[in-house]
Each structure stands twice: as structure tokens, then as C-alpha cells.
Amino acid sequence: MGIERIGVVGSGIMGSGIAEVAATTGHEVVLRSRKLESAEAMRTALERSLARQVEKGRREQADADAALARVSITSDLGDLASCDLVVESVVEDLEVKRPLFAELDAIVGEGTILATNTSTLPVIEMAMVTGRPDRVCGVHFFNPAPAMSLVEIVRPLTASDATIDSVKAFADACGKTAVEVADRAGFIVNALLFPYLNNAVRMLENGVANRDDIDVAMKGGCNFPMGPLALLDLVGLDTSVSILDALYGEFRDPNYAPVPRLRRMVSAGQLGRKSGRGFYDYAR
Ligand SMILES: NC(=O)c1ccc[n+]([C@@H]2O[C@H](COP(=O)([O-])OP(=O)(O)OC[C@H]3O[C@@H](n4cnc5c(N)ncnc54)[C@H](O)[C@@H]3O)[C@@H](O)[C@H]2O)c1
Q: Which residue's CA is the closest to the ligand 1 atom numbered 11?
């Protein structure tokens, strides 16, 4: 089945990015947020992002206009009924995602594939609340979705080959490189990345080095484009704690147990770029 019409649920960092990727690669996109104002804000942000690309000569005006015209917004899940693929990208919490999958299952057509952009949660938990566990999988984009080339396609035990093949073809049509991975917390990238990020915070907490020196060291010493503390700010500290909790819950490896400072920063509302403050301050 060709995937042409995409539903995106959640207008946060990732939902917005996925909507931009899908719309700029020729897909019709229905973006659903609980509040219409959030979806409107996302469309305005998309408009600005496309205008910047035109200014920089990376995109033709007509192409930007067509991409924007392909995005419709709604606060009603019912408007996702005719989508070929729905990508869920709401908060990293099974208590939120599971009921959402059950609700989507009752709304969308029989052939629709339901996918989650979860970073770590068991995809099977979402598949099993639906009547279509063969048509549920993970499609894990990276942040920022328009810039990052990788998509992890996560195969829960129940997914059919046809589902995985269709979602791989979608990733391909989005201009991304797809890798397939089993349904284990953290998949490939986060299972390897998060112990490193967590240990950078531990190093800061233990006074081994200061923030700037940790980030400068990993950029200069490993040729990474950004340091671990700046990367945590980009990911979002709340999302990072949820990812670490899920990894620790699955593997009980102490490297995955969130360093207390991370949790305290989340309690203080210091979530990184999205809240204006994390390890760094961001002018609003
Ligand atoms: N931030 C990243 O770097 C990153 C990368 C890849 C995947 N992800 C995954 O993408 C998903 C979304 O993460 P994000 O970074 O966009 O988060 P975000 O905090 O920017 O956005 C979360 C969205 O969830 C919505 N939401 C919150 N509570 C809800 C509820 N009870 N019901 C319905 N919607 C609710 C919010 O309104 C918001 O639109 C998560 O599963 C996360 O693990 C995040």
C-alpha cells in the first residue's frame, strides 16, 4: 500500500518536525493537537521555516507554498480517519500513548498503519491495545527531524512484513535512511547514546569538569557536532529522563539510572531549549 496521507498526533518538537518532513516530501499531512492553537502555532512555525529555506535559496517559493498547502490542522482525532499512516508523537508516557492507540484504532480505516515515534517505550504495549497489532510499528525520527537523516523502524513481535515494508518505503520517500531494529528499549541509537549523556551529567555533578569544558572536550576530542549537555538541552530534559527511566526499567543497568540532577532540573521547569533554560540559557 502506498502511503500518501499522514496523520501526526502531537505538535511538540517532534510532531512539528515530522509534519515538516512529510509535507516537504509530497505527503498530505493532517496535524492533530489537543488544542487548535498549538496546531496553529506549529503551522506558523512551519511557514517561517519554509520562508527561511526560500531566503537561503534552498527551496523554491512555489515548492514552499505547495508544502504548506499540504498541511491541515485539527484538534479532532476523527479527522485522521482517512490517513494511510498515523504517526503518534505525544509525550513519552505509556499511560498517555496506550489509550491514544486504542482511540485511533477505533477511528482509522482498516488498512491504516499506526506508528509511534517513541524513543524507548515498548511498541508491543501500544500494538496490543488495538485490534490491528500486525499494523502497528515504531517509526523513530531524530531531532530535528528535517535535518537528521536516520529513521529507526521498530518491529514489535506482532508486526507484519507488509507493515514494516510500507513504513520503510515511507521513510525512503521522506528522504531518510531507514534501519530496522527489534522492539527493545532505546532501539539502537538511544540505547548507546543515553548512558553517555547521563554520565556527562554525572561528571558535571561530581565536579570533574565544568559544563563548557565537558561540551568542548567531546566536540574537539570526538568530532561530535555538539557536546552532551547541549544535546540534552536539545532533546529536552523531561524527555531525556523518561528515556532513561524506560531504559533502566528494562535493563537495570546503573548507567541508565537518571542522575539526580537531571530529575531536579525537570522539577524546576528547566527542560532545555523548549523552556528557555536547561544546562544553558536560551534567549526567548
Ligand atoms: N525530543 C527528542 O529529541 C525526541 C526524538 C525522537 C523521538 N522523540 C519522541 O517523540 C515523542 C514526543 O516528544 P517531543 O520531544 O516532541 O515532546 P514535546 O514535549 O515537545 O511534545 C509533546 C507533545 O505531547 C502532547 N501531550 C502532552 N500530554 C498529552 C496528553 N496527555 N495527551 C495527548 N497529548 C499530550 C503535548 O501537547 C505536545 O504536543 C516522545 O515519544 C519522544 O520520546 C523525542
A: 89
Q: How many CB atoms lie within 10 A of CB 252?
A: 9
Taking the centre of ligand 1 as the mean of its atom positions, its distance from the CA of residue 11, in whole angstroms, is 8
| CB of 201 closer than 8 Å to CB of 229 | yes
**Residues in the chain, overall count:** 284
* 162 close to 3: Cβ distance less than 8 angstroms: no
Is pLDDT of 165 > 60?
A: yes
Q: How far away, in angstroms, is 62 Cα from ligand 1 center?
A: 31
**Closest residue to atom 25 of ligand 1, CA basis:** 90
3-state SS assignment for residue 106: helix
Residue written as grid cell 499506526: 114
Q: Write out pLDDT tens, residues 17-60.
A: 999 999 999 999 999 999 999 999 999 999 999 999 999 999 99
Counting Cα atoms < 13 Å in the Cβ hemisphere of 102 gives 8
